[in-house]
Amino acid sequence: MKYIMYAIFAQLLSISHVLAQSNSTADQQAIIQLSKQKWEWMASKKADTLANLFHEHSVFVHMGGSWGKERELDVIRTGGIHYKKAEVYSVSVNIIGNTAILLNDIDLVAVVGGNEVVNPFMVTEVYIKEKGVWKMGSLTFSRLMRPVKLAVNQ
Questions:
Q1: DSSP β-bridge partners for residue 115
Q2: Helix (H, G, I), strand (E, B) or coil at 14
Q3: 6 burial class (0-12, 13-18, 19+ CB within 10 angstroms)?
Q4: Residue pair 46/37 in contact by the 8 Å Cβ criterion
Q5: Is the distance from CB of 103 to CB of 123 less than 8 angstroms?
Q6: Going along the chain, which residue ranges are E strands?
Q7: Domains of the chain, earliest start first
Q8: pLDDT at 77 > cutoff 60
Q9: CA–CA gap between residue 74 and residue 69 (Å, rounded)
Q10: Total-model pTM
Q11: How far is CA 114 from the centre of its chain?
């Protein structure tokens, strides 16, 4: 009888582990898709859509400084930075509880101060799941030392 109870318990543990992994994979895919949409919304200057994605206490770190949600939305609305295109080369997502950390290796084509620039970045995106909804808590651009991979005339 004890053996049967241990076998049932072991099976329940393995089923819960599989379910947790599949849920994590679903969350990882949701975050990857959300990040992809975010790049499209930024390129299209959809500040109102982004306002719904950005957490009220979100922070943004750029080469020229760091600021909060309202300033980032204002920068996008006014074209202070126009995120024209993010060419994404790799994506990874780690989920820790209700927090997702996404890393994107990208070349970013942007217009800054009226000049088009292309920079290689490792972008860190942090998302927090609140009431079943993922919100962006942080977006950080870290310039990479590698050369730009993107053919600029694309």
A1: 112
A2: helix
A3: exposed
A4: no
A5: yes
A6: 54-62, 65-68, 81-96, 99-112, 115-130, 133-143
A7: 2-143 (3.10.450.50)
A8: yes
A9: 9
A10: 0.81
A11: 26
The Cα 12–Cα 148 span in angstroms is 50
* 3-class DSSP string for 22-54: HHHHHHHHHHHHHHHHHHHHHHCCCHHHHHHHE
In terms of DSSP bridges, do strands 133-143 and 115-130 run parallel, antiparallel, or are they unpaired? Answer: antiparallel
Distances (CA, A) of 57 to 28, 76, 135, 138: 23, 17, 10, 9
Structure confidence at residue 5 (pLDDT): 46
Apex CA 55: angle with CA 111 and CA 104, to 5°? Answer: 50
Q: Say if strands 133-143 and 54-62 run parallel, antiparallel, or are unpaired.
A: parallel
Structural contact between residues 146 and 138, judged by C-beta atoms closer than 8 angstroms: no
Report d(CA 105, CA 60) in Å as an integer: 17
pLDDT tens figures, 10-38: 454 444 444 444 457 999 999 999 999 99
Extract the tokens encoding 42. Answer: 């930024």
Q: What is the pLDDT of residue 4?
A: 58
